[in-house]
Amino acid sequence: MRRSRASLTREDRPAVFRMAGHEWDLMDEVFAPVFSPSTETALGFLGLADGPPGAPSGSFLEIGCGTGVVAVLSALAGCTRVVAADISLPAVRNAEMNAARHGVRERLDAVHSDLFSGLGGERFDTVFWSSNYVRAPDTYSYGSIHEAAYVDPGYRAHRRFLTDGPGAVTADGRVLLHFSDRGDVARLYEIAAECGRELRTVASERITEGEYGSDVVEHLLLQVVAASD
Fold it and tell me: What residues in the chain have per-residue pLDDT under 50?
């Protein structure tokens, strides 16, 4: 919660920031990628840091899009259909701004959605969520929509993502979850088993998060599949 509040109020919070060789607009109340390694790590996991090869293709859904960096770079890398979804209305507007800034509005739709609720049952070749992996107490209520980018009370959102994600992809599609050992990895695997899901490690990277101390944190890219698969 301290990280969330500090990100909103610190004096060096930019209106425009640079990442992956591009400039991006950052609106008030939206998660700031410059104050966390998660967005740049996600770009590396997806092959978007330097563009193709290895980048997603076909249709791409980003859950929790924030500023839209991942979604916009997916469109720039050649995805034919991109949806950037977020529970935060300011984040939806921010993603629209950055899609317009980089000329991909015709291929990118920004949608107000609580996970998959606002997507009308559409299926995608890639579903990706860089999640709010810190587990808050089950009874915690958000003080602001910005906190939803940082913590998940009782891992309720993660349970829904694990349950519904495989139903949101095409026959050969992939559901990808970016998690971290700042979260409760063991509990995530327990929830996956309870939902009839298997988690397969696609990639991992250990990062020293100097912005908030010298902790070495392991970031994980996990593929979610039905246990029977």
Answer: none
